[in-house]
Amino acid sequence: MGSSKDLAVGTVAVASLLIGSMLGSEVSPTDNPALYLHLAFTATFFAGVFQASLGLLRLGFIVDFLSHAAIVGFMAGAATVVCLQQLKGVLGLIRFTTSTDIVSVMDSVFSQTHQWRWESVVLGCGFLFFLLVTRFISKRRPKLFWISAAAPLTSVILGSVLVYLTHAENHGIQVIGYLKKGLNPPSVTSLLFSPPYMMLALKTGIITGVIALAEGIAVGRSFAMFKNYNIDGNKEMIAIGTMNILGSFTSCYLTTGPFSRSAVNYNAGCKTAMSNVIMSVAVMITLLFLTPLFHYTPLVVLSAIIMSAMLGLIDYQAAAHLWQVDKVDFCVCIGAYLGVVFGSVELGLVVAVTISILRVLLFIARPRTTVLGNIPNSMIYRRMDQYAEAQTVPGVLVLRVDAPIYFANASYLRERISRWIDDEEERTKGKGDMGVQYVVLDMGAVGSIDTSGTSMMDELKKSLDRRGMQIVLANPGSEIMKKLDSSKVLELIGHEWIFPTVGEAVASCGYILHSHKPGMVMDSAAAHENMV
Q: Which CDD domains does the protein's record reference (predicted)?
């Protein structure tokens, strides 16, 4: 149902911790484990309903707030966090923090130095080196891609055989151990829709559902960016929501697209979402028949597999490119990275999206206005700060507005245009040239306008009239024309002062200036009609 080819679904640490903490604050998992389990299934059901509803309501546009810079930082931060979590297996620690931030992880690691197991460190580093070498070989020789794809399974087999032959579990190497065979029973009858706990399950489901959805879409979009394709946020929401609804019926709690699982899936060379089906069938067969075979699988090997997949997803070159091209995008990237590493995955997403939204708001609230000049021997007008050969036209000031005109920027634009006029008047007065008689606004980049914008245009028209100047509009879009017409501003400006191009607008103004006295600008409408 989803559009992502690389998203591997499963449980995630963040959602698990949130469900545990929110439900655990009201119901003890040790005193009343059955109720706790039923509430977890119910919260998963509500999360799925909420997620699917967002997709059905076509709210997938929220994915657009995850920019390329945010994704680069999010991926690097998530990869760093996952790698840090694997230190538990590599160092052979029994107890480890449930927090994901780097401060808590480092505190947990260095407060237990006396429990580090050198055997586990050697084995973990050895398998990590093996996995990285196989990836390097596959990158250098694409025809040998199968070496990197087979490396994780090879590591599991070799690690299990090594532990079995050497009895390494008796020397500090932790193994998976006994796994119970079989599948969990259906849980449809376990869902609770009655007081007093339904509101707790509803609240938990909505909060964790939003976070899981944001993480899943972010991860899916991250890998889509790597493979150069697009994902549909609405489809992802519906797919993840449906998955959680059905999962709540089969003894599953909240699932999404975890970063570590998707990274291993991606690193193994999976090309389509069919890999999830194959993976689920393989897991089912394993749970039914093969769990005894994993008794001797060392946890340190699994940690090495995850770490090797994570290291390949920290894109240093992309971050350096962002620094060179756009410092604000680099701040978005670093904000996402630091938010994930020092806070949590959801905090990193919030920081990145917040910075991105603030940037958009700043661009809208303080749009760029530039003076255009004429390229000699043509009717082309370009920015004078970009084209040194561009020249001003005597008596005509050409300005371009590079953003929609909304309530947030209407006052700023009016003041900015007035300052441009004052600066031009001062410049021409100092040189003894003709003052500004016409103000041509290039509206080609103005995609929309609201009532505050039309009011600003009305005020600007009246202000220029008092100064003996005429406002001229060039290349306004159809939506702009409709709004100006319905607000009577178009009638106030005059249809004769609307032109399809800047060149035609300036040519008309120039004709009137050369045919009549400069002081007769207010009566130039008749002259314009004569020219036409």
A: STAS_SulP_like_sulfate_transporter (cd07042)
Q: What class, spelled out in words, does domain 366-531 have in CATH?
A: alpha beta
Contact 363, 121 (CB under 8 A): no
pTM of the predicted protein model? 0.69
| DSSP 8-state secondary structure symbol assigned to residue 256 | B
DSSP 319-387: HHHHHHH-HHHHHHHHHHHHHHHHT-HHHHHHHHHHHHHHHHHHHHHS--EEEEEEPTTSS-EEETTT-
Distance in angstroms (rounded) separating the CA atoms of residues 349 and 335: 9
Residue position matching structure tokens 């998707």: 262
Neighbours of 416 (CB within 10 A): 17
Kindly list the domain boundaries of the chain, sorted by start residue: 13-309+316-360, 366-531
